[in-house]
Model the fold of this input.
Amino acid sequence: MREKDDKPTRYFNSAADQSSAERDDKSLVRNIRAGDEASFAEVVSRYERSMIGVARAYVRDQALAEEVVQETWLAVIKGIQGFKHRSSFKTWLFSILVNQAKKRAAREIRKWPGNLLYGDAEQTSTDCFDTSGEWRSEPPSWDLTPEAELLSNEAVEQIKTVIESLPLQQRIVITLRDLEGWASDEVCALMQITSTNQRVLLHLARTKAQQKLEWYFTERRKTEAASETEGPKS
Amino acid sequence: MTCKKIADLVTDYYEGALSSSEAREIETHLEICEKCRMHFEHMRQLISAMGKLPEKPRLSPNSRAHIMEAFREYHSQQRIFGIRRTWAFASAGVIAIAVLAVVVWIVRTHTWRPTELRAATLDLTDRAVLRGPDENPPNPPLQLPRGKLNLTVYLPVGSEPGMYEMQVVRGAGEPVWGGEGEARLENHTTTLHMKVDLRDWKPGQYSLGIRPKGWSWTYYPLVVK
Done:
């Protein structure tokens, strides 16, 4: 059962307007069932990026991800007559996508490392702290204009690489939450995990991404400092 | 709380999953600890940056066309003469039932239940004048066909014109039919005209009772064929 999350969210929680979303869902599903091509095209466009993103978490190749998306829509076309609105259309759609992606991944005999929830939970930045729990060294700085810097090409590549290297469930959670902007309860509904589990996975994923970036910026500072030959800054 | 413990709670903090006292404890710590403050700030920036990553690829036109084609194909299969298949089947069913009903109705009305009036005659002229129980057993029973009859009854010689009542009794039971009419003299015979609907009667033996209105019944055996 899902844990109740009744405290106010502080940051980054996109709260969806539930009731209007439900109404939208119902008319959307009705239109698709009736064979309305424009509605169908609209919903294909609406979710194509997210669907490719989630599929990529399983198959990690654009062409394969597109095939998974295609197979998902074929299943939706046939299956939507039986859709009962027990979940949102989005959750239903993505659960089909995840099933198709798993099937495809199995077919491609790609084995991704670690499907375990807590496999490396203890790894959380232990090396940053000494035995008393104090910071071993200062967190490397990414300085004055950090967001612009974070969105530089290399940094984006670093973020993508580290996400791809994550275990499957962490990869899916961080993809949906931080890249696709899903709300936490949507992710819980799709993955059928508790909100606590979801937070653990998200924390592990984000921490690893942050460490990777800190390492990346440290390295970059070092090379910059070396090339400027003015001595190390810090 | 140690810095490590604080760092472990960064996601719970940003997710709003901490109690207000825990959150306050973290905020107090961040005010005094530069390193943790930086750590939290970095995390916040990372999350925000991930939300702004360059647009992910869309579907290729090929994949998209494939999906749309599948949609069109599925829904055209669902249509017969441009009507949704379920509706087409339903209306075909309704039409079939209606046609069947019309055929059954026509067959029944034309072969089993002719609606036209048929002329039929009961000749009682050579029977005794009505005055009690049947007095002439040697006479064969009267016969009537099943159907809607325009019945002409020639009453026994000597019957007077006037209002007559008729009834038909099956066995010893209740009358299955009753009626009355005025008998007139036609060609020196007292004649009674009546319309009788025998279509629902079972074939078999009945008794036909006739009397001048208010008198006692005289019964004649009647066979319906």
